[in-house]
Amino acid sequence: MKKALIVVDVQNDFCEGGALAVPEANSIIPYINGLMEDNQYDEIILTQDWHPANHKSFASNNGKNVGETITLNGGAQFMWPDHCIQGTFGAEFHKDLNRDKVTHIIQKGKNIEIDSYSGFQDNNHFVKTGLEDYLKYHDIQLVEIVGLALDYCVKFTAIDAFNAGFITCLHFNGTKAVNVKPDSAKNTIYDLAEKGITILA
């Protein structure tokens, strides 16, 4: 059975000191590096938030405060601080993430009108990123997922992987949550397990 590791958004803006820093984000990088070193993955794929500066998920582009929610293209959109803007240091992968064995990079969130938490498609499920096709082209059957942040981009990447027919596993020690709400991390784990995604502790 061919397997892939999907590393979600381990970028400077989500790490310590970043514009949208996830608590304890840096602590998962050695774990992810260890997975890449100790396992034989057929594919190792990085996803990368890659927003235009005028992206409509940014509070600053809507005259809103971070943490508010607006309706955008018929869906609820949480207002984020500016982050992972194309070509900036914040959008780059963290320097400590070992990329020697990476086989492919998927960029997401490029359409100013729609946010993209999942590595597979935008939040409205209008446009796919090409990740599903890439995995199927390479005969991948099992995917393991790590990265940032558990309660947003990791969660929706895992759900989409499972719904696309891949055996899907989440490494609990390879992810951290934003925890906009106090129980977000715990609720996300329960939600993913309930859907049939394997949680590897």
TrEMBL record:
Name of the protein in question: Nicotinamidase
Known EC number: 3.5.1.19
Stored PANTHER family: LD05707P, PYRAZINAMIDASE/NICOTINAMIDASE
Isochorismatase-like domain boundaries: 4-181
CDD domains: nicotinamidase
InterPro entries in the record: Isochorismatase-like_dom (IPR000868), Isochorismatase-like_sf (IPR036380), Isochorismatase_Nicotinamidase (IPR052347)
Leading EC class: hydrolase
